[in-house]
Specification:
Layout: H1 13-19, E1 46-55, H2 85-102, E2 119-124, H3 127-140, E3 150-151, E4 154-155, E5 162-164, H4 178-198, H5 200-210, H6 220-235, H7 250-259, H8 265-271, H9 273-287, E6 295-300, H10 302-311, E7 325-333, E8 336-344, E9 352-353, E10 364-366, H11 367-374, H12 382-386
Parallel strand pairs: 1-6, 2-5, 2-6
Antiparallel strand pairs: 1-7, 3-4, 7-8, 8-9, 8-10
């Protein structure tokens, strides 16, 4: 846990949530139990850059199943798929944790105040990732005494970010890659038709009780998992009939859905490859004195987290939770540069270092070696490779 959330009192919800960024700025990341400092980093090494990929926070269902008791928007203030107050708080807490870990009191990578030459952030063009980034930066770049905006209920400074449009020219997240979408849809359709035939009674049961057209569109069984998860988190209960399906086998079906983006080398290059290439390029630029940015942040989705890990041949065993986070840390030791990768599966969970396949199963890997072992999943010309 990070800290206990106090009552919001009479303050307006959005302002109050952002103001909470100030409540735990002295948090000790090591003692909080949310960072595992393992990873064989040589004594005397200096952290010089970090890349943070995080999933958005808690959200409303993207769509209700037709027979849901909570099938209308009155049950979900804000709208379908939108970030919730809980999601805002989760991201504020994550921002606070990042400052505690990488700020002056720990690694010293980030200054106390925002600096455009030190920090850069981007997000996909979706409301919940945009709002997540804003909330995260409220926790990361808290307002300092005597500076910024200090209205009675607002102690927060706006910080810039970039929204990456969902079009074929997105080389950061690789959104709207026609070839990837075609391949993923094909594999998902084939796999879920197979799963339906292997679990015919179960799929029929799910359709009869949910109202989804699962027998005609088998992948909709993953929508059911998603909505049931949100109902359980937000309403505290799911229908009795769903206990035969949730969390298993629905969670396993969702994992099959996520796997579809990484079944072949070409798919890994088109899905997880763009973000991985973005990170490696920025790290190389820093080592050559062409970049001053110390932290890059990417507000994205569970598929983003899964695809990057899959591109590294380390796919997660469970679906990435809200605020699931990947940290790519670049260290300098004398004249050498190496990196470490940490993964935090969800809110209030420990971030742990990952062994890097292809690098001797070590927790650290030289930047040069890392680029070599990932070369096959880094797109050369994404726009051209995405053309169907």
């Amino acid at each position: 846990m990070f800290y206990r959330i106090p009552s919001l009192g009479g303050l307006s919800p959005f302002v109050s949530l952002l103001s909470l960024a100030l409540l735990a700025h002295n948090i000790d990341a090591a003692s909080s139990g949310v960072i595992n400092y393992g990873g064989d980093v040589p004594i005397g090494s200096k952290l010089v850059q970090v890349h943070v990929i995080y999933r958005h926070g808690d959200r409303n269902p993207k769509s209700p199943y037709p027979k849901s008791h909570y099938h209308d928007l009155k049950s979900w203030p804000g709208g379908w798929g939108e970030l919730t107050d809980t999601g805002i708080l989760q991201q504020i807490k994550l921002g606070i944790l990042l400052k505690a870990l990488y700020g002056p009191q720990n690694y010293g990578l980030l200054p106390e105040e925002f600096n455009v030459k030190i920090y850069k952030s981007v997000t996909t063009d979706v409301d919940r990732t945009i709002m997540s980034l804003i909330a995260n930066q409220a926790g990361l770049w808290r307002s300092l005494k005597g500076k910024g905006i200090h209205e009675p209920d607002v102690q927060w400074n706006p910080t810039p970010f970039r929204v990456i449009a969902d079009n074929k020219y997105d080389t950061i997240f690789g959104q709207n890659c026609s070839k990837a979408e075609k391949l993923v849809d094909m594999f998902r359709d084939e796999r879920f038709e197979q799963l339906k035939n292997e679990n015919l009674q179960l799929f029929q049961y799910a359709q009869e009780n949910s109202g989804y057209e699962i027998m005609t569109h088998p992948t909709q069984i993953c929508w059911l998992y998603d909505t049931l998860t949100v109902e359980l988190l937000r309403k505290g209960i799911i229908p009795e009939w769903a206990n035969a399906l949730y969390p298993e086998p629905l969670e396993s079906f969702l994992m099959e859905y996520l796997k579809a983006g990484s079944l072949t080398e070409e798919m890994r290059r088109l899905t997880g490859g763009p973000l991985l290439k973005t990170i490696i390029t920025a790290m190389k630029n820093l080592t050559m004195g062409k970049d001053t940015i110390k932290m890059y942040a990417y507000s994205a989705h569970e598929t983003s987290i899964y695809d990057v890990l899959a591109a590294l041949c380390s796919p997660p065993k469970k679906p990435p939770g809200y605020t699931a986070t990947l940290l790519f840390e670049l260290f300098q030791y004398q004249n050498s540069f190496f990196l470490r990768i940490l993964y935090r599966p969800g809110p209030d969970q420990t971030a742990f270092p990952m062994k890097i396949p292809g690098c001797g199963e070590q927790y650290i890997c030289s930047l040069k070696k890392f680029e070599e072992i990932t070369q096959h999943v880094l797109p050369k010309d994404l726009v051209a490779e995405c053309t169907v």
